[in-house]
Design brief:
By secondary structure, the protein is α/β, with parallel strands linked by helices. The protein contains 14 helices and 25 strands. It is globular and about 70 Å long.
């Protein structure tokens, strides 16, 4: 979208007003819209999407082999069964699922595309958010009583890419997976993939099918866990049970397994480590140095485990078409990568799979009555609202389980909150923390006990969490399920206001 915003008459015209505005039409935004129109049918809403299509991540990323890194029975919506044969699904299948959901529930009628949220200001006099939105036609203004942020957590404009000496000297193709060119051909080419995360471990086996050789170059190893892409039990149950029942059973089983696995890494990390490495040794132990290339310095789930479906990474290494190198980059040369060890990796293509650039609340600017909000000075409320910020919920999923599990729960809680406010005649809901508690409570990062670089680089800019509820971000599905679905909406920290200001005619004009 053009960075030079054209100002039109809509800048000064009265803003279009909705009860709820949802930002983002990816997995979270579409799921939230379904919940909203089902559980709060008396609320009107619009969904603003900055791009021209539904799907978010699953429409943006187009690199070879893009897939889910968790099973679709938990990454999918709890209200719409995943019925495809493969439970570890490819990107196009997931995108199709999101689009099917939007069409089935007529969400597309509420979506406005090419609408990028630039700023949002809370107007206390109106008890409304006033949004400034960039469109191809210029700036548009919206107002809403409640703002639901489902914009994801990473920048759409840029990925994370370290500075590499000599990068400009490289004569081949330099690619970041977030911006994969449709025209790229890699048949019979030598490829170096820099990185050791989920993207790198997806690219390596998929590119190796056509490339002459693919090298995964990593500074340090990552834990990998192998699972079949086809869930035999899920497919068997679907033949004999109603689709929703079969889906719910597998979803429950997988959720319990995810939580059990994560908790086991907290109490018995050594046992989990031995189990993970044993599997790797069984697959490729004779071909690679497991200690050097697959044994991280940290414990399992201090960073996210990388899923290897159907042992595809191991198969690629066994075939000789792929290899792993653990070393540091000295510099980029005109024909590849020179390592600190002195080794040189020849390359026709270098894929810089070094991660995402995280942003907060979609990168938009937020103000309260015109005063800038510094989120780093605020406290998280249940990992979805911020202290002193009214009528705004932001969706952030799990780092230790499927994203959509938490997105579903947050959407459920939002609808409970809206219905409570309507029933009680309340206009605003604002988390408030006492000065005494704020001064004495321990301060922790919003995502704690997780050492991944892409998180650590930006945690100082996120709201902080404390050591007691509701000022914590639990990242625990079992606890969250009770908190979001069963616990009372009203607590001492969430302050409601029934004031409905009477505005003078002069104040009706926005802008």
């Amino acid at each position: 979208m053009n960075s030079e915003v054209k100002i039109t008459e809509s800048t000064t015209a009265d803003a279009e007003c909705f009860d709820v505005i949802i930002i983002g039409a990816g997995l979270s935004g579409i799921g939230t819209a379904v919940r909203l129109q089902r559980d709060c049918p008396d609320r009107n809403y619009v969904l603003l999407e900055r791009r021209e299509a539904i799907g978010g991540t699953w429409d943006l990323f187009r690199y070879p082999g893009i897939r889910s890194d968790s099973d679709m029975h938990t990454l999918g919506y709890d209200f719409k069964p995943w019925e495809a044969e493969k439970t570890i699904a490819d990107g196009p299948s997931i995108l199709s699922y999101v689009n099917e959901t939007a069409d089935e529930y007529r969400i597309r009628d509420h979506i406005r595309f090419s609408q990028k949220l630039v700023s949002a200001d809370w107007c206390s006099q109106r008890s409304q958010w006033q949004l400034t939105v960039e469109t191809p036609e210029g700036i548009r203004r919206y107002r809403c009583g409640f703002l639901m942020m489902c914009a994801g957590y990473y920048s759409y404009e840029q990925g994370y890419e370290p500075e590499f000496e000599g990068k400009s000297d490289f004569r081949g193709d330099w690619i970041h997976p977030q911006f994969w060119p449709d025209s790229l051909t890699y048949e019979d080419k030598k490829v170096v993939v820099i990185g050791s995360g989920a993207t790198a471990m997806t690219l390596v086996p998929n590119m190796s099918r056509k490339a002459s050789h693919v090298t995964m170059l990593q500074r340090s190893p990552t834990y990998v866990i192998s699972r079949p892409s086809v869930d035999g039990l899920a497919n068997w149950l679907r033949r004999y049970l109603p689709p929703k029942l079969a889906y719910d059973i597998v979803r429950w089983r997988n959720t319990v397994w995810q939580q059990w696995m994560y908790q086991l890494t907290r109490v018995a990390p050594g046992m989990v480590k031995r189990s993970l490495l044993k599997k790797v040794r069984e697959e490729i132990g004779e071909m690679v140095d497991i200690e050097k290339h697959f044994t991280p310095r940290y414990n399992p789930w201090d960073q996210r485990l990388c899923l290897v479906p159907d042992d595809d990474l191991f198969r690629a290494i066994q075939s000789g078409k792929a290899s792993v190198v653990t070393d540091h980059i000295q510099k980029i040369t005109d024909r590849g990568v020179e390592l600190v060890s002195g080794e040189h990796l020849d390359a026709d293509i270098i894929v810089c799979a070094t991660g995402l650039e995280l942003v907060i609340l979609g990168g938009a600017e937020f103000t309260l009555d015109g005063e800038a909000i510094d989120l780093a000075n605020e406290w998280t409320y249940k990992g979805m609202m911020c202290s002193n910020i009214p009528n705004m919920v932001h969706t952030f999923g799990y780092i230790n389980a499927s994203w959509t599990l938490r997105a579903d729960l947050i959407a459920t809680w939002l609808c409970r909150l809206l219905n409570h406010m309507r029933a009680e005649g309340m206009k605003t809901a604002t988390p408030r923390i006492s000065e005494e508690l704020a001064a004495t409570m321990s301060r922790r990062f919003w995502i704690d006990d997780f050492s991944a670089g892409y998180m650590q680089r930006v945690m100082h800019r996120f709201p902080k969490q404390g050591d007691c509820m509701p000022w914590m971000n639990p990242q625990n599905y079992r606890k969250d399920r009770k908190m979001f679905r069963d616990d009372p909406i009203v607590d001492e920290a969430l302050v409601f206001d029934a004031v409905a200001p009477v505005l003078e005619p002069a104040l009706e004009k926005v802008g």
